[in-house]
Give the backbone structure.
Amino acid sequence: MRRVLVPLAGLAALCALALWQLSAPKALPPDAFDGFTGHPKAGELVFHAAGCASCHMAPQSDSPELAGGMRFASPFGTFRAPNISAHPVHGIGRWTVRDLGNAMIYGTSPAGQHYYPAFPYSSYGRMALWEGGLQDIADLHSYLMTLPASDSPSEPHDLAFPFTLRRGLGLWKQLFAQQAWVTPLDTENAHTLARGRYLVEALGHCGACHTPRNLLGGLQTSAWLSGAANPTGRGRIPPIDALEWGERDLTYYLKTGFTPDFDSAGGHMAAVIASLSKLPESERAAIAAYLLDLAARPR
């Protein structure tokens, strides 16, 4: 019996060590942002493209104070958006640009813990694939530090065991947070389509709402942007993978929220439109080009 148990115990220890290594939080190299200078004006555009205010602005608030508090229901519990204002204690005022980069690309906190994927780092992580992605993070960091500080503490998430154990998220990331584009481009020289893909698949994290998820909460990229169940349990989030709108209709919708059928964006999409409306027309046109190219592809 001992001859059997000792090797089994050793094998179990090796498996546990392997799982511990696989689940470890990742981080950017210490010199990742050496030579980068953040520009707040450019960072403001990144802020709007990434929809930061649509989640982190306090509910029923019209001020640019990113105090957090918005609730997000899920099958795993209720998540609450944290305070990401420039407050040095309750916000991210002490974060370095690398701290922000680790959070957005790897979902890793300054303390070296996993963030829950309610923060869409599985999308933001694709910023590492874009030539100017790190510069965008540097610019965003510089802009966030110019916004008002809020002394409101972040509210805790409402989760049950075992979802309170963050270490397991490292394995979830191995499965569902790989940094790869969802949609290949027909030509690498298609600048507008490439820009639209960056805005939709990375910064805009459109798939986080418009793509169905599996039982573990991972995005089913084989059904990319084909619509999804509303986490609140009320209705469905519509598909945007086969839009039949014209380019002008779509860019107009992204600016105003008004559809060609004389309807208007509602729910959380209204806040998304409020952010997209602040982008240059060329950015909305790039998003429209990507979505219409996706609609024209064979099913």
Q: What stands out?
A: The chain has two domains: 32-180, 181-299. The longest helix spans residues 2-22. The radius of gyration is 20 Å. The CA atoms of residues 176 and 218 lie 5 Å apart.
